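As described in the Methods, two query proteins were run sequentially through the folding procedure within a single session, without resetting any intermediate state between them. The first query and its resulting structure tokens are shown here.
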Amino acid sequence: MAQKQGGSDNLDRRYGDDEPTEESPLLQSTAIGPTSSSDASWKDDRRPATSILNQGSWRRMTGVLLLMVVSYLVIGSIVSYKRLSLPAPKSVADAVAPGDFSAEWAWQHLEQIAQRPHPINSRDNLRVREYLIQTVRKLQDEARAVNRTVELGEDHVKITLTQGFMSNATRLEFYESSNVIVRVVGAEGRAEGGSSGYPEAVVVDAHYDSVLIGHGATDDGIGALVGIPYLLFPLQMIRNLIHHPVKHNVIFNINNGEEVGLYGAAAFMKHPWAKDVKAFVNLEGAGAGGRALLFRSSNKALAKHYSSIGNSPHANVFGNDIFKLGLIKSGTDFSVYTAYKIPGLDIAFYSRRAFYHTLQDDIEHTSKGSVQHMGNTGLAALRSIADSDYLITPKEIFSSESSIYYDVAGLFMLVYSFNTYLTLNYNLLIIVPVFIGWTIYTAREHGLTPFAILRGYLALLLSFGAAAGTLLGSAALLDKINPMLVYGEHWIGFMFFVSLSCTTIILVQWAWVWLEFWLKGDMGPLEITLQRIRVDSEQVANVSIVLFWWTLLLGATIVGRAKEIGLFYFVTWFTATSMISAYFAVYPKRRGTPWTLARLWINFVPLMMVMDIAVTNMIALGQTLVDGTPSFAVMALFSLCALNCVMPLIPTIHRSANFKKMSKVSVFLTLVLFVSACVVFPYSAKEAPNKVAWRQIYDLDHDSSLVTVKTMNRLDAIMKLVPEAEKRECGPDPVSGGVLTQCVYEGAVPTLVLESKKSGKEIIKHHVSKPEHHRQAIPGEEREAKSKTLLRTVHLQWTAEDSRLCQFQLPASAKVVLLKLDGFDEPDEGFKSAAVVAASRVGMVGFKREYGQKWDLEVVYEVEDKNAPALEGTLGCLYDEWDRDQIPAFTDMKHHLPPWALLGGGKGPGLLTIQKVVSV
């Protein structure tokens, strides 16, 4: 209870006449007690404590509530400002120092790159590649003028994959590489054919192909901009390294094919220069701009290099651990390099994901500020790595030591090893019980007993459990009423969850304190009882919450050690700062600390951390719903973030001395926000359009042209506006497990098909060779090694009109032994497993570097005898060019969309697939 000062203070002295040193002026009130301790009528009031439990004034309650709201608004405003603000773009004249990057300069080349969509299977993709090559050659001339070396690598790599780097492959993948590879030789580096200097290099990775529909301004036009110089005004990174050289070599892998399977990075690992790579920096786009975030790092040393950039670093280990736990199924080139044991950094945009991979992934929907921030962070991190001895220090290169890294609202960044994180936790797990024991011992005269702390701790656990259950229940309810709430109006959803958390916690704490006094039958004087309710329960709450955070810290340590994850790093901070807060709460006069500092501002940094996580998740995850992320999962995550933001308020809630008044205000706000969350329209044309995935399959055999449209919500309202889709069949999308809704209808015939009919050409012209039979021993679990199986070998040959990307799919029941595309080697043994190889033998997909190439696929499969019927498979070629009305059904859909909807291509290649059945 209240600690005596100097052995002579009593409660009348401590809480009688005004003592401004103990309380914030905002919280002082004369309405809850007498102005003089000699007021006889006050002292004679002996009503039980339960009858006066909520006698605290509106003024005091308002003061406490106002302090809570203002404090969180201040913290939230700081975090939001730092997360949403962008640096001013630098002009060419301003970017003269070694670490300077000019967004204005880069923007000119972005306008060239993003003129039209350039997915891998398009002629504009070839245009962009040639643009890059010609510009690199001009840059080589500039390098020679200052006696520097820039090398343009030849790329003739052909790869065969049995493992997809984004997921397990269900078919073989053949890819002819078309990367643009550049090496800038460092001051102490070794050039091609050289005999002196270090060959070790850091690779900067960015892809230049766009998705099917997007123009690739952010994914990954900006990434390519950051990595490659362009025509007339060579872009910053390579030119910067020419005029401000670093110690070691830097290789730029501006790759193609990232969007369709991370092929460009996989192909680079077969290039001769790959053997020298000791680290990488991957520049990505997971949104339409905003700040660039370091969301994955292989080891502590590289994260340290990023932390030293001095350009408002933005980083969080949360993304790294979410990927590690397998909760995110997508991938970046980071996955390829780490599969080959090369450590690196993954830096990406993540804001405004609604425009990501859509028609508006263009230059108008990003900003020069985003280019500047990516350029600042990417260039500074690259220079830091290439100028250090990291690349030639085997101990650091091969270190797989996990690290904890995060910035605090862009103000500063912390990086420490996972072992340091565990050590901090272990120390706190020991210190906290000692602190609580010492506090109980020194404050025992005023009733701060172990049982009081235990009861307060149980009340906190009950509050946490009740709030978590209520939040998850409300998330499930909102998921039924307005499932896309957090897609377009995540701030309303988050504020509702915060308010609901407060309401639940206030009600539970009120009920607990009421029960405590009722059971004790407290009949003391009103003045003393009020102070016990106002201060003593607050003291108990301050000490009990230390024990509560200690419990969460124990859980975070156990889970972290088992999974080697540190995403709960903020719990460490809360545990430490809650001890400081509790100390000043029990001994305010001893330290002369104002109440506001003791109870709230000490928790400023951890509160900022957990609110930062909440804000980052809202920006990054809210608009992933249209990609198939379950809405309940995102709402549940937001609600738990809100709960962690509210739990530190519990001691402050006790300060009000009036749970009843606080609960009235909180319930009212919660109801208002709940109604708003239920009725608000989640989509908007400017910030959150509904992303609609579109695909068309034209069947040459049946002359049918089926269009499939998918989205999360309100698809029927969209389809009613499309005249061509009047006759449609709608239902749950089986591919997403029913998370998305799909509609299928007969769309307009593609232009290529109409032209071929007029000219008499075959879009896909194929030929199957005469089958050959032979017997061969096929080892397997269900066969004896000595038995020989009859195998049939045929060659399927075809040519495709205007396509470089084709696929062949066989029935899952087919007993295929081999699929091999002419000119491609066998896949690496290191990436073959029995399960993957078995699955991959029912189909293939391949990409050719040039148009008009001949395909020759060898197919070997088991048969009962030579007269067995041929296998029937589906041969299809994919088309992604739409911007010149090559796909009329797509154009029609685009013209009839409501303003709040936007077309996207979905996952994988093939906006249009033209296919036919072939017998092999």
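Immediately afterward, the second query was submitted; its sequence and tokens are:
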Amino acid sequence: MFRTALRNVLAHKARLLMTVLAVTLGVAFVSGTLVFTDTLKKSLSGQSAKDYAGVAVSVTSYGQLVNEKGEKEGEPGLSQATLDKVKALPGVASVSGRVTGFAGVGDENGKLIGAGWSNQGANYTPVKDGKDPRYTFVAGAGPVKADEVALDKATADQGKYAVGDKVRVATNGPVKEYSLAGVFTTEDGAVQAGGSLVLFETKVAQELYLKPGYFQEMSVAAKDGTSAEKLLADVKPLVDSKGTRAQTGAALAEKQAKDIEKGLGQMGTMLLVFAGISLFVGIFLIYNTFTMLVTQRTKELALLRAVGANRGQVMRSVLTEALVVGAVSAVVGLISGIGLAVAMRSVIESFGAKLPGGDLVIAPATVIAALVIGIKVTTVAALLPAWRTGRIAPVAAMGSAHLPASAKSLVVRNVIGSIISAIGIGLVVLGVSSGGDNGRMTIGAGAFFMLIGMIVLLPLLSKPVIGAVRPLLQAVFGIPGKLASQNAVRNPRRTAVTAASLAIGLTLVTTLSVLGITVGKVVDRMTTEKLKADYKVSMAGGMGYLDRSVTETLAKTPGIKAVSPQTAGYFMVGDDFRSASGVNPAGIGQLLNIETVSGSVDSLGKGEVLVAEKTAKSKKLDTGSTIKVKYEDGKQETLRIGGVYKDMEGLLSPYVLDDKILSQHSEESAVSEVYVNVEGGASKAGQQKVVDALGKNPAINVATQQDMRNEMGGMINTMLNVMYGLLGMALIISVLGVVNTLAMSVFERTQEIGMLRAIGLDRGRVKNMIRLEAVVISLFGAALGVAIGIFLAWAVGTTMAKSLPNYELVLPWDRIGIFLLLAAVVGVLAAMWPARSAARLNMLTAIKTE
């Protein structure tokens, strides 16, 4: 029986090749994801170990903490006095303090070098022989004067800077020029991520990022013979406070490795979800393939039963075929996955990110996972066809009696499908009523049950749905159209399995598309309806806050008629911390369209506060009410509510007041953006005026309204394109499924096709019949997928509506039309081989076929 199984595998290479391809795609994605994440994890963990190789103890300060009364406690960082105390300990070889923050370097055109989120500045701290062991200088030396900096080699090369050149460096304040003292190489994570690193003299860095005389981190090196644990025990009493944490360098490296593993785990989970979708869709293809192969070999299997093979042997023969196919698919998928991992690395690096080097990691667990998944998926999918094979009576099989499913089995199936679908719909409705993250989780569970229920009910749905389009097909395409619609529902189970794979893919694609387009429209409306400013000034890459000098500089610039900062702050209202926005009362009305429910925006100029409508309702506040607030510095004040405005989430906090009031109670700048209007309205000249006023600062971005729309729209489109690419793999498998179904249909109707040819149906109309059958099945699955996708998008969108102002579901009919058109194209392409085979049948030979 084993030899028979192997012979059957080799005898049906073409059809089994499609199964191999389907399983290979899923396995390749799983193994590729595992290889890529394991390799990156090892590389980044190795880098963390290098970073802390010479660090026995590391101390981190989290700055001043805010107590329950809203008052700041503790010191802003680790003082020089604390470092001196630690340095005096007997087991300490050296101590170095570190401060870090944002620093951007401009190229020769004034544009920011590197990704904004990973452009860092730090202090240069020589600890031994006048050198800092974290950096290897390839030219010059570290900065020792206030007007000197050092740059990493990649940044210096990109900016074409050499030692002695003047370098324009921007932090969150005005851009400044420094002399380049040296160029270095480093394993620093910011540089490895495609950013830049600027080293300042320590006092300069402290003034920029913290406070003179204080550090954010302290690294302690141990003398020979002193253990890190012993040194940690000695250091802790000297730095013990609520705002600090001391740990060994090894522990910190291990923690970073775990954080890396967690971060990569989230990315890996997302990729594995799509691999799982592809494998799930592949199950339908495998099921159809083995059903077809078993049907084609009915006589052969019956003969085996007649000569003594029992049901178990026949069933095991089919499962052996599945085992062989699964093993081949797993091996090919694993090899393909390794190639995919290399390709993923290249794609990421093409976007400017620099991944640490290292050999590919092919863990035993990855190999086992690939083999288990490939073999298990194939075997499970083939289990039902194998079981049915064993139940065919030898006499019935010898007569080729392919009996359809009994009415009883279809009734049972329909009842089960209805129950599962009802559970799914109920969970979705429950999730909508619950709202929030928990509601979306419930909707996700409901979507799963809905899809399973749909798959079970598809045979029931296929007859009425396809029957409804039969008159149209007959009217347009004549006899081939009528025959195609009849053939599509001749075996409702097989049609259902084929349509299911397309329905699953289109459900996910439609849900993501509708949500993406809807959120994009909300953002667009918010920009056009709520934002009246010509420009928004912010830090490049969304890194950090602007210096207050930005607002002051723009307010003094000729040709600029309105300026307002958007300062992010907070105060306590009763026992609760509440976010607040500080704005310029004189200009905010010209820059943002603030609609008041009661009161006036002008009340801001009187020192009064505006409250968002939702907050006002929840706190039972109204215009004229007063609230007692406690600021960051601990001072208390009673504020009068001068107006209640319609919520502007994403633009303003629930409480809005004069920036002068909010800023005088905060030591640190927190200007997230500055809105600007210029005389004559938005134009390229007006934008350049703002850029010039800020000294052509490479770290500051001046965005037009269109830029703001494009920024959010670009993010949404990028996300959708990634999703389309990942889900495209599932659709490829769906194409193979349609090919299999049509090939099966042609095989079963060989005699019928011969009769049709004999009574006058020419080859062209035979091809049309097969093509139309494929298009009908494809569109049937696609239409169901689109319908369920729209329903799920509505459900998820409803849970998001409260957090998105002016939310309104948008159905992208153009994209939905493209999806349906692609489904039809899928049908046409999938029908090419079966249609050609059917048209080339010899009519006399076909008529004699049993």
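Residues 243 and 297 are 75 Å apart (CA to CA). We note this only descriptively and draw no conclusion about the first query from it.
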